[in-house]
Amino acid sequence: MATNILLTLIITALNFLCIAFAFDPSPLQDFCVADLTSTARVNGLACKDPSTVKADDFFFRGLHLPGNTTNPLGAALTPVNVNRVPGLNTLGLTIARLDLAANGFIPPHTHPRATEILTVLQGSLEVGFVTTGPTYTQFSKVLEKGDVFVIPIGLLHYQRNVDNGNTVVLAAVNSQNAGIIAVTNGVFGVEPQINSDYLARAFQLDKKTIQELQAKF
Ligand SMILES: *[C@@H]1O[C@H](CO)[C@@H](O)[C@H](O)[C@H]1NC(C)=O
């Protein structure tokens, strides 16, 4: 009986630790504006001297401007993260604009450090995420202007414009540096390359197809 209670306590403590460390750590000061020139190695970025902090450290102008979607994806992501707004350092937030031309898309990817929430400002968007294995269940929606969708932390997801016009999306993530792992580049665009015989077996494709994919990414 006592063992069961102890086990429950340990599991509860472990769950608590997971929750506490699954997001950017909470700040212990009003702000820690990133000193982008510091070479100090810390979790996040070193703080600037607070006496030198200006309103511009918390400011970015231009998210009303469309990104350039003239590229093979027909997509442009404009992230406003800690590199553009140093005042975001330690605050666990990023905002981004996503432009998608007709048929534009973002390939399947994950953000290892953040949950994402997005809203469509213009056009329409198919968005979907996949649960972890072994079930790999897909949850997807076609969003219209004003719709909001949430992508839980770490889960594989994708976005694509299923309309003929341009789509504009405003997204936020709860990390100053959410990180991105695209399935395509994260498997086929790796330096040094992952062994192609092994990938051929893993994907149940011939080695030539794998090498073509490796050349593309
Ligand atoms: C958009 O990107 C394309 C391809 O890189 C380039 O040729 C074009 O000049 C860019 N357009 C603008 C308005 O910057």
CATH superfamily of the largest domain: Jelly Rolls
Order of strands in the sheet with most strands: 1-2-9-4-7
**What's the overall average pLDDT, rounded?**
92
CA(first)-CA(last) distance: 56 Å
Number of H- or I-type helical stretches: 4
> How many domains in all?
2
CATH architecture of the largest domain: Sandwich
Radius of gyration: 21 Å
- Give the helix proportion (percent range): 10-25%
Parts with pLDDT < 50 across at least 5 consecutive residues: 16-20
Signal peptide: 1-22
Domain Cupin type-1: 61-211
Protein name: Germin-like protein
InterPro entries: Cupin_1, Germin, Germin_Mn-BS, RmlC-like_jellyroll, RmlC_Cupin_sf
Offer a quick outline of the entry.
Helices cover 20% and strands 26% of the residues.
Description:
There is one protein chain. With 217 residues, the protein is of the alpha+beta class. The protein has 2 domains: 130 residues, Jelly Rolls; 38 residues, no CATH class. It is 20% helix and 26% strand. It is built from 4 helices and 10 strands; from the N terminus they run H-E-E-E-E-E-E-E-E-E-E-H-H-H. The strands form 2 sheets. The chain has a 5-stranded antiparallel sheet with strand order 1-2-9-4-7, with no helix packed on it. Strands 6-5-8-3-10 form a 5-stranded antiparallel sheet. A hairpin with a 7-residue loop joins strand 5 and strand 6. Helix 3 crosses helix 4. The radius of gyration is 21 Å and the shape is globular. The chain starts with a helix and ends with a helix. About 2% of the residues have low confidence. The protein binds 2-acetamido-2-deoxy-beta-D-glucopyranose.
